[in-house]
Amino acid sequence: MSQAMERNGSAVLADHAILLAGCRAEPISHWYAIYTSSRHEKRVHEHLGYRRVECFLPLYRTVHRWKNGCKVQVELPLFPGYLFVRIGKRERAQVLDVPGVISFVGNRSQPVPLSDLEIDTLRSGLHLQKFEPYRKLAIGQRVRIKAGSLTGLYGVLVRSANGMRVVLTVELIKQSVAVELDAADVEPIAS
Q1: Same domain, yes or no: 178 and 124
Q2: Do the domain assignments include residue 5?
Q3: 48 vs 56, 89, 115, 118, 156, CA distance in Å?
Q4: Are residues 97 and 148 in the same domain?
Q5: What pLDDT score does 16 carry?
Q6: Is 174 a domain residue?
Q7: Which ranges of 86-140 does DSSP label H, i.e. alpha helix?
Q8: Tens place of pLDDT for every residue, the chain, 191 residues?
Q9: Cα dihedral: 123, 127, 133, 137 (round 10)
Q10: Residue 175: inside a domain, yes or no?
Q11: C-alpha R_g of the chain
Q12: pTM of this prediction exceeds 0.70
């Protein structure tokens, strides 16, 4: 009887070894993108840190001009409204419980994991290059000036090298002027 138990015991151990090997072959956690409330990315990142959830918020530095004319260097999210978390399936509720987290990015039934290579490349390469968001501004596109003394005026983007040159037209008298602006002071208009 002891030989039978010994054989069953070794069979059980072999089954456990196969199960454990299967678990090791597939990573337990993946990177996911989460969608946050507007301008709450840093706060969500901080809350996730308190909860010991591995997260990544890529930031870039830019000069921001306040309404009083002062210029200050600030760090802003490279992907506004998003940050990345590395979690297992069981930790999703813990992330969704963080104030400012709206949802995971994915389809309705489940979030879609991101490639480890993409996130690792971003994490290791951001400090080596100058990154900034691409605002999809194209030459010939109608834009609105959103900062400075010309706030609220509309024009057409005519150059984007070394800054933005926007042509403003006074329709009533059919006269135009070109003005040089910072990229941060201009936003595209939906057609």
Answers
A1: no
A2: no
A3: 10, 16, 21, 21, 42
A4: no
A5: 42
A6: yes
A7: 92-96, 116-125
A8: 445 444 444 444 444 444 444 444 445 899 999 999 989 999 999 999 999 999 999 888 888 888 898 999 999 888 888 999 999 988 999 999 999 999 998 887 789 898 888 888 788 777 766 666 656 677 788 888 887 767 777 888 876 555 667 776 655 445 566 777 777 777 888 76
A9: -130
A10: yes
A11: 26
A12: no
Q: Please give the tally of structural domains in the chain.
A: 2
Amino acid letter at 27? P
Any idea what the Cα angle at residue 38 is, between residues 141 and 120, rounded to 5°?
Answer: 85
Does residue 117 sit in the same domain as residue 35? yes
Q: Is residue 133 part of a domain?
A: no
C-alpha 140, offset from chain centre: 28
CA diameter of the chain: 105
Q: Where do we find the tokens 């994915």?
A: 106
Q: What CATH number has the domain bearing residue 99? A: 3.30.70.940
- The range of the structural domain enclosing residue 41 comes to 30-128
Residues 34 and 118 in one domain: yes
Report the alpha-carbon angle 113-55-95, nearest 5: 75
CA distances from 170 to 42, 73, 135, 176, 178 (A): 41, 34, 26, 6, 12
CB 60 within 8 A of CB 131: yes
